[in-house]
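sry for the spam today, last one i promise. struct tokens for design, 312 residues
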């Protein structure tokens, strides 16, 4: 029988009405009421209509996306086949652990805010950013980035990476990628170079926070973004969540692991459709969709059940 994976998106595609979209079920509404005290001030007052000027600030974006995915899962889980694997891209890896039961919802939101705060503080001394690069191999992209004191943040595929560098050399690195043959270089709407050594201090401090709030064993295995290995044990999960803040994410290997474990049906919780599109680019025969493609979130459950039956 085909296996089923749930994918938790990262930052970059959030919208002001994200929470309003996830508020349609009684369970999601109860969850929002229960965790409201754990939300940052800019989100607590009107979570369903976030100020666009705050939307891409880490301190708002990370708890916002965590809350959205928790609420979406609260709606979906009662009627959804149990996933065989959970995986998340960047921030999504932490959120996947929350969906798997490693943290209670209030704890997860507290930790998402702590993660954002530690990342912002670590980046304050050395402003940095990320860019998507297409058309170069990871080896070539790493060499070019290193020449500008940058690093690879995420390896998406054989000709698709995300690179991070200090703001003072951002344009220089962009030009260097183009000169090396990149077909596309696009700045990303994030305020710092996550998954690079620029945030080593944040990894250390978030690791301390996780030792104080140690995850409980997940109900479903969660992929580590750094190693692409399925994680069951709390201590390795905590280490992986801390390390990935300043270490290259191998999303290419994560996709390979999911497919090799028999996953044929993939539901991306969003925001956005990037992860489901990456899966389809990797394996056009897979069934992969994002919640963003459904008019009604609850309709996704019926689609998953249908596709699992079809993929048998």
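last one done:
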């Amino acid at each position: 029988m085909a296996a089923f994976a749930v994918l938790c998106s990262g930052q970059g595609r959030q919208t002001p009405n994200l929470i309003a979209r996830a508020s349609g079920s009684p369970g999601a509404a109860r969850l929002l009421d229960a965790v409201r005290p754990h939300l940052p001030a800019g989100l607590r007052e009107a979570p369903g209509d976030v100020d666009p000027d705050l939307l891409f600030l880490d301190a708002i974006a990370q708890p916002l996306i965590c809350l959205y995915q928790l609420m979406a899962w609260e709606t979906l889980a009662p009627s959804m086949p149990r996933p065989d694997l959970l995986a998340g891209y960047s921030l999504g890896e932490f959120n996947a652990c929350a969906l798997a039961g490693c943290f209670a919802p209030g704890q997860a939101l507290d930790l998402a805010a702590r993660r954002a705060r530690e990342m912002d503080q670590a980046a304050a001394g050395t402003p940095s950013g990320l860019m998507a690069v297409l058309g170069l191999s990871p080896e070539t992209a790493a060499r070019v980035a290193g020449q500008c004191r940058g690093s690879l943040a995420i390896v998406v595929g054989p000709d698709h990476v995300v690179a991070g560098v200090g703001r003072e050399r951002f344009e220089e690195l962009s030009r260097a990628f183009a000169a090396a043959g990149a077909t596309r270089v696009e700045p990303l709407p994030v305020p710092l170079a996550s998954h690079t050594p620029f945030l080593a201090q944040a990894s250390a401090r978030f690791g301390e926070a996780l030792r104080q709030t140690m995850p409980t064993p997940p109900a479903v295995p969660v992929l580590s973004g750094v190693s692409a290995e399925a994680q069951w044990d709390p201590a390795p999960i905590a280490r992986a969540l801390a390390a990935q803040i300043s270490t290259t994410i191998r999303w290419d290997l994560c996709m390979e692991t999911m497919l090799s474990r028999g996953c044929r049906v993939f539901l991306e919780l969003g925001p956005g459709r990037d992860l489901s599109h990456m899966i389809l680019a990797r394996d056009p025969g897979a069934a992969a969709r994002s919640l963003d493609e459904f008019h009604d979130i609850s309709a996704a459950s019926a689609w998953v059940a249908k596709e699992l039956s079809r993929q048998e």
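The chain has two domains: 3-123+197-310, 128-187. ok im logging off now
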